[in-house]
Automatic annotation (TrEMBL):
GO terms for cellular component: membrane. It comes from the Bacteria. The chain crosses the membrane at residues 45-65, 71-94, 160-187, 222-244, 251-278, 284-303, 315-344. Pfam families: AI-2E_transport. Belongs to the autoinducer-2 exporter (AI-2E) (TC 2.A.86) family. This is Putative permease. It is found in: Membrane. InterPro entries: AI-2E-like. It is a multi-pass membrane protein. Keywords: Membrane, Transmembrane, Transmembrane helix.
Amino acid sequence: MSEPATGSEGRHEYVMQLLEAAIRIGLLFLLASWCFLLMQPFIPLLAWGIVIAVAVYPLHARLTIALNGRAGLSATLITLFFLSLLLLPAFILLDSMTRSAVTLYEQVSAGALTVPAPPGKVLSWPVIGNKLHEIWSLAADNLQAVLVRFAPQIRVLGRWLLTTVMGLGFSLLKFCLSLIIAGVVMYKAEAGKLFVDRLFARLIGRRHEEYVAISRDTVRSVALGVVGVAIIQSLLAGMGLFVASIPAAGLWAFLVLLLAIIQIPVLLVLMPVCIYGYNIMPPTAATALTAWCVIVGLLDNVLKPMLFGRGVEIPMLVILMGAIGGMMLTGIIGLFVGAVVLSLGYKLFLIWLDIEST
């Protein structure tokens, strides 16, 4: 719109048009902000669901062909498979922890809980050996006195354990919902692709298909880097624990897999196992197990740069920087979002510099 050259009536109409446009823009901004606030609690679930769906879609496509085009059945089977992988070990672990806690409570209440005397080699442990041997010996002689002496610390530990278990349970619930969303997204893949194509076409223009492909391939590349490394670490950890005859080696390997997927250092699980190994194994064997676990725990630092960026035109360093920066900024989902955003930004930057290869 353009302001008339003369006349107060024309200027008044021009001002009214500006005011009306400002009000409309303000209302649109208010509506968009309100919609964002309403959707904000669901954004992490939707983001995870989309990431999982994009990463698993090749499997879904092959299974759909094997099932004579029944995409709904394929998406349902894949969703149930991943839910069972997640929930069955969680229920087994929860049942074991509950039974152990009930047994411990009953023994403490009845005064029947006994602590064996510490082995003499505890004294040889560096830094903590003498203090641990003293407390352990006191617990073996008079457990009630130890419980009274360390009651404040036990309460703090109990609250921390309760908070941690509740947090893990809530995270498990959210991840299950994300898997269900992923199943729906896979089932509606064609409609989703059409929506993304139209969105990128409106935002980018004629080259939108290239950027859709970059986003898709980047998500799959990061998923390969995260899940692939997690599987390798869990298999190697399980092999080492099995050879060392550590009890429940399969369960420890599964915990390593979970921690590696959610980007928590797997040494948090493996180091307590190594400490336990020094109590049941010869020093040489326990040291070998510890060295193996340290190698497994640090292996992701070598493998991730190798796997990130496979099959994507974007340089591996750009994807790796985006994934790490995104995780530092917004948590584990930032691994995928950060990699996609930085990859798209890198591509647009090349176009702006007019140095992209044709």
